[in-house]
Amino acid sequence: MLQILPPYELAAGETSPYGARTAFGLDPIYITVEAIPDLDKGAIDEVLGADGRRDLERLRALDRVDYAAARALKMRVLHHAFERFHAREWKRGTARAEELAQWIERERAWAEDLALYVALRDSHGMWGWERWPNEERERVPYVISRARETLAMPILEHHYLQWIAHCQWSRAREETSALGVQLMGDLPFVVCGESADVWSRSWQFRRDVSLGAPPDAFSPDGQDWGLPAYDWRAMEEDDLKWLRARTRHAAQMYDRFRLDHVVGYFRMYVRKPGHRGYFDPEGDATQRAHGERVLRAIIDEAGRGNGVNGGRAQVIAEDLGVIPPFVRETLRELQTPGYKVIPWEKDEGAHGGTFRDPSAFSPLSVATWSTHDTAPITAWWDDFTGVEREQLERLAGISKKASEDERVFALLGLLFRAGSSLTLTLAQELLGERTRINTPGTVGEANWTYRLPKPIEDLETDERVKARFERVRGLAGDAGRA
User: Fold this and answer.
1) Which residue among 48, 74, 92, 305 is least packed, with the fewest CB closer than 10 Å?
2) From CA 206, how far away is CA 29, in angstroms rounded?
3) Sheet of strand 338-341, all strands in order from the earlier edge strand to the far edge
4) For residue 330, which of 283, 279, 290, 280 has the smallest C-alpha distance?
């Protein structure tokens, strides 16, 4: 099984996959341009030019992803692909033109607003919708109708990119399914304020407050994510229509998906500028009933997907942080697994507490050493106290004289012996790397720009990697997981 971060479309300059401008559209940056029928090598080379080819080689040689430069280069090629499609297919009404028209009609519920939003945003110098003229900001019908006419070409271009992206996604899913590989996605709790969804459904989102997390051991003042909050009363008026649609879309894309910040469906921690935060809604009984109602709707819709494997997609709850007991009780009642991040699974006591034995974890859980918001265990180990290391050494059977690689293998073996039905490992842990994906509460070039040390094709033939994977395969087999 392969787990990925959210692939939804980001605005130019954004790198966090949790800051998407849509809950539905895929980011064109992931399109494989060589596989677009409207392009060939000659066309790609021509539109890139000598400067573009040099830039491409520079980007491919970087240790980190330069999203701004990569996006600019790719959009240059994608725009050329659209121009060729428009001239050769759309104007002539070919079979491929009809395929796009049918796709637009089928996905109109989300694609229409997203394409218009992107076209309007581009026409306003990339400013977000809250800085647009009042009539466009408030979606006055005759103004919106006029915009659809005047911006018809960029709107069609965005539809084209989404069509290409979704077609490539479907083909990739068919191939991974044929290989026996499942795909696990990630459903962000909410979209950013500057998104097509908040613009088109502004009455269902609270913009007078900012969403975040309450104070905890890692953040004494709490966290402010700068994201809008749901207006649950407005959401209930149409029976959670937007959440249901988003879930069905995810169920078509993935075999299973992670519900980010699941506690937020029970209670959101919000704050007004300059004020202390508070929970919405208030009161344990109200929160429990509300969370159960929303989760039941999500789980129900996850079973309505018609993705590559048919049937239902499994929901996994990200239940980390400050979680009231009734949240995990509800998850158990709904047979929805939550997370067990081993370094955070402790019983209270002296010296910071005692690590729990992963073998005692409930089967209804997902065990892991780390997440995209922590260091991989290859590096996190350095942050543990001497007492913590001794405890983990006893649990994993690690010798005091073990090398770093031997220690990592022993820790992976401990993870695989967990009682949880599913275990997850970061790519860095499998490859023996120490790079972190994201450090919460910080902004910098290191966040969200991780890339593999080599392309997949080169890793496949790397003798060191092959030897590591054989070792990991053996550990998984010893634990009954392979």
Assistant:
1) 92
2) 30
3) 338-341, 365-368, 422-424
4) 290
